[in-house]
Structures are given as C-alpha cells and as structure tokens.
Amino acid sequence: MYQYHSGLTATHPYASWWWEWPFMKRPVWYFSGRSIMPAGEVSTISAFGNPVLWWGGIFAVIGAIYFSLKRKDSRMYIVWIAYLSQYVPWMLVPRVTFLYHYFAMVPFMIISIVYMMKLLDEKWPQWKPVRNLYIAAAVVMFILFYPVLSGMTVSQNYVTYVLRWFDTWVF
Fold first, then answer.
1. Which positions ≥6 away from 73 have C-beta within 8 Å?
2. Pairing between β-strand 154-155 and β-strand 28-32 as defined by DSSP bridges
3. What is the CA radius of gyration of the chain?
4. Is the pTM here over 0.70, yes or no?
C-alpha cells in the first residue's frame, strides 16, 4: 500500500496536506450548478466540516489525550489511539491528499469533544451554559453551511459574503 501511495505524482487544485485538514484550509469542491442556475443563484457541493466542531475538535483531541493519560482513563485510550492510527499514516504519504481523508478521524474527534465537555461539567458545573452555547453554535453552523454541503439553491451573495470565510474555501 505504501508503495502505491508513494509512487503517485498527480496534483490537484483541491489537494491539501495532512496538517491542513483539521483547519479545513482547502475543502474539496464536488459540484457547481452555476451554468444551469438563474443569475444570482448557485447550487454547489463542497466537502468540509463544521467549523465549530472541527476547530474545537483540535483542542478536544489534544485535551482528551492529555487528561486521559493524566487520569489514567483507559476508556479514552482507544479513542485517541484510533484517531492517531487513522491520522499518523497520512503524515508519511508523500502523494496528493485531500480533506476527505480526515473524515475517518471525525467520529473520534467528536467523542473527544464530548469527553472534554464531560470533564468540564464535572470540574466546573457553572460551565454548562458555555457548553450549551457551543452546541448551539455547532447547530447554527450546520444550518448556515447546509446549502453548500447539500447542493441546495441559494443566492450567490449568501455563498460569497456569508459562507466564504477564506479565499481557499471554494463553493
């Protein structure tokens, strides 16, 4: 398998390196219906994650590793070992890679977020409103980005001015 992956020399405009995946630097653009849509409307599909979950997940995975080791919580070992066993091999692959390779790590990232929320709830019960706000923000982000995840028809201005936070985010 390594021989196959290390021998590929292709390039692609939506390629991204493994260290860019948690930050969603370069989503993969799957579909654009611009040519068949009325002026000012767009239908597009891009593969990327929920910014609230993915960016919060960076800290959650690091925190889950640290606190599970510190607390000797062996239940979490399997979670971060599974996360790392999916992630680390991509660090060794020199060929073109894409954000969707990170999708296999997302379930373990979500479990890490829940684990960290549980720890924060136990240590600081007054933190619950912040936790609830985080969950609400994740739901709002899903609703906001749903059109470009699903191909739903929306205005070009909405996609360009509300959803395109970075130049590398193509919708």
1. 67
2. unpaired
3. 18
4. yes
